[in-house]
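Anyone else keep sequences and structure tokens together like this?

Example one:
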Amino acid sequence: MNIFTKKRNRDLFEAASRRLSKSHKGGLDAIFLTHREDAGSDRCFFLVTGIEEGSFLYSSAVMYPDGSVHLFVHQLEEEEAKQTGLPYSVIQPGKETIISHLKGLTGIGINAQSITLSEAGRLKEKRFSIKNIAPELEDARAIKTEQEIVRMREAGSITARTAAKIPQMLKLGMTEKELAARIDYEMALLGSSGAAFATIAAFGENSAIPHAHPGNRQLKKGDFVLCDFGATSGKYCSDITRVFVAGQASNSQKSLYNTILSIQLEALKKVKLGINAKELHTAADDAVLRYFEKIKAPGRMGHGLGHSIGLYTHDGKRIGTVDYEIPDNFITTIEPAGYLPGFGGVRIEDTILIRKNEIEILTHEAPKNSLIEVPF
């Protein structure tokens, strides 16, 4: 475990302990996190362990006040556990390996958003006092270490370079499913550890569906082509959305695209350390609504301006309707959009790093300065 992860663990533990003490909810002796694919992956397991490679299915970690971590793995994961350099125990079938390790402790922190009811119940049965530390885990995920930033730069570059190649992937008659598969393949060729989320490829009117699922819709001349996808480096994600037109774009398509681009560029000028996230979102959302009012069309954005990103694609904090100040070393998307049912939609999204003295666009290698028309 590197010193940055260990320090963050200590800070996380101290923050949770302070909150619990103030609310008279008792002390905190250790934090218990699980990684169970069958219950939905809790990537906070990787946050506190610093592990960047491997699946670690059905593994757990116990973290202590000094930031140190002990792993609990099944025999199938023992070789991976050895490679981490962390202390570990192999879970023995029929034996209470983890419960025995926690013997003598009382207050156990858990991520209530991810732990299963049976796991929480088992801790209670053994007279442990469980404490929800999900708020502190979210705050810890929001502030990236230097090692995490390196990983996310790499993921951002893979994502952006893939986006730049999409015009060459397009052909009339291809389906959304085919384009999504080609995007995933290109990311893999460029070194992605895997898709950060299910790739979106939406043609024509389907581009007005924010989370469109790629189907058998075929590409026709004049269609919007909206692609939303992300690569990973280790466990860390990137996210980008770019929009193209198959053939020559109409004036209405260019107008919508240029409006959303100007809103994104304005948001990128405003975003900085300490700015209020809600105010940033409201300014962009209002600009989108004014555009549709001007053209007398029932369009909207309908979602936040962005979301923090890291171990999760949607990593807890959003730039939306919640008040909070943007922290240092914060990585988020900026993705204004305008959707008009029956016509199509435009979303322009980049992953950015916000630091004290700079804003770095991690997906800057993907063109966006004008609506790209793909000739056929």
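And example two:
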Amino acid sequence: MIKIYVLQLLKSTLIIQSNRMRFLICLCLSIFVKLSLAQDLVLSPIGESLCKPGVIGKSPSKGLSLDYTFLPNIKVYPYKNGMKGKNAQRVSSDRFNFKLKVPVIYKPGFTLLIGYAHYREEYNVSNLPNGEMSILNEIDDRSLKSNRLSLYMIKPINKKIYLAFKGDASFNGDYNGLMNFNDRFLKYNIGVLVGVKPRPNLEWGVGGLFRSSFVRSSVPVLPFGIYNQTFNDKWGLETVLPVTIKARYTINSKSLLLFGPEYESRSYSLEKINNGNTNYTDNFMKRSELKFSIAYERQIGDWVWINAQTGYSHNFDTSFTAVDVKGVAMPSVVVAPTDGVFFKVGLFISPPKNRCK
């Protein structure tokens, strides 16, 4: 399946269908060239590693990353009026993720970065009569995509305090091709963080995330915080609250373990749902999960790392919501997936630590 994803991505990149697509491809190619030549690679200040700010011993930054996640068959039950139905349907999914972040301006007093991320997932739904869960058949073997363009800025105030800004726009849905700029797929986020680094092995910060989404139930403003600390040569803690808490164990200079819980939520605008009612103009899918995992990261070259992760996913209810021509949301169709294991493999590029001064 991952080979199919890669081929689709390359095919979509090579076939230029519009002026917007041509601009996007040229932009991505120029970013990749800049990445190859960059001597100092930094990443998002909001929850990820960079040369400064950042704590001693933190897990390696990821300038370019590629990974594949597989979730074996789980059972999905209908959920209505607070009751879970008896008839279950089996579902498995494949997920592919590509990320790229590079510096545009990297000076002691100011840092500017840009990023691009492509994510897609596909579901394999067992072909069984499913009554109230017929909605699942609509996403069977369909690519649900997310393309995100990001901007990051860091401004140190003094030796211990800095300001960080993150803004991104993403297009999320079941559209054809690599990208679709239709507003119905658009979500955007703006994050602001005040970071404090009292000493080299300790960093914390507080901030707010402002977001706009096609999902009507989304909270527009979310507070968040970071806390990173290295306790000794072996142990450390890396957190983005309330999203993830990771304990870090350094095996040696080229390998480490990360383990702990992580929350993930994704939503898509679906344009191909056959709901049998022409009064419905939009359909949305939203899923979320809490993952408990352990990850192993290993350096295999000066810039190249590989990683492997496995764990247990607690899947929250998945909802499908239709909106009529007047913009009124109809009652959601809710399904309840069971929990299950997942497996993830990937590789990423990170600069040698002695280049991060």
